[in-house]
Amino acid sequence: VYASAEDILVSERAGVAAITVTLTQTVASDVTVEYATVDGEAVSTADYVSTSGVLTIPAGTLSNSFTVPLVDDSTIEDLETFSVALSNPSNAYLDRIASQVEILDDEAVAPSGYFKGNAGEFQFSEFTLSFEEGDRQEVIWVDRFKDSAGNATLEYSLPATEYYEASEGTLTWLDGDSDPKPIYIQLLDNDAISPIGFNIRGRVTLSNLSTQHGYIPNGTRYLYFTVHDDEESSVGTLMASQYNVFAVEEDGT
């Protein structure tokens, strides 16, 4: 029997990051595992509260959770991560020895006086999307709002996987144009079985805004999406359950 905790994404506004440790099957005895947070780009006190302890998964159950408090500040920050290390399991083996926690900043609106002009703000229309696996095209929209003076361009990129093709290019707005602009994603249908529990996560990046008179939070913006694998796992294969957590900031408008 193996125990593991999957990576999660959580907004700092959520207040806590919930880490779930999951077994590949139930057992007749309690399973325990020690956990402790480890700094990364996110550091304790400034971004989260250092946490450690022992988690018990009661006999006959598949999972249990613990939480790590997050610090919700007013600083505009990039995506930051810290890890939760697992150790010293009893009545089970560790499938993964660490889980990565990504903290998504929730300061979507610039502080007063930040704007140098009136070119507007640029943001994804939605922050999380889910698609079913299949050979078809999906679209993600990017908004320009608040103001629309002057021309503006914004680059986007998405690396390829076996579930979708790479996509990169430049979005263009002319003076006075505030219409949403599309990013097209070509999904792929294949016979591969995802090794991470039927959810494949992708990330679209916005960067390199051309005008100094507009605003994109942090200078770079991300949209996370999932593709749901439609292949079933092989009978008899032991696989830790995947728990993807998507909690995202609000854009403040």
Features:
253 residues, mainly beta, Immunoglobulin-like, 2 domains, 5-stranded mixed beta sheet, flat, disordered C terminus
Notes on the protein architecture:
With 253 residues, the chain is an all-beta fold. Helices cover 0% and strands 46% of the residues. Strand 13 and strand 14 form a beta hairpin. It starts with a strand and ends in a 25-residue tail after the last strand.
Task: Provide a brief overview of the structure.
With about 250 residues, this protein is an all-beta fold.
What is the topological layout?
Layout: E1 2-5, E2 8-11, E3 16-23, E4 31-38, E5 52-57, E6 63-69, E7 80-90, E8 93-94, E9 98-104, E10 120-124, E11 128-132, E12 137-145, E13 152-158, E14 167-173, E15 181-186, E16 199-207, E17 214-215, E18 220-228
Parallel strand pairs: 1-8, 2-9, 10-17, 11-18
Antiparallel strand pairs: 1-3, 3-6, 4-5, 4-7, 7-9, 10-12, 12-15, 13-14, 13-16, 16-18
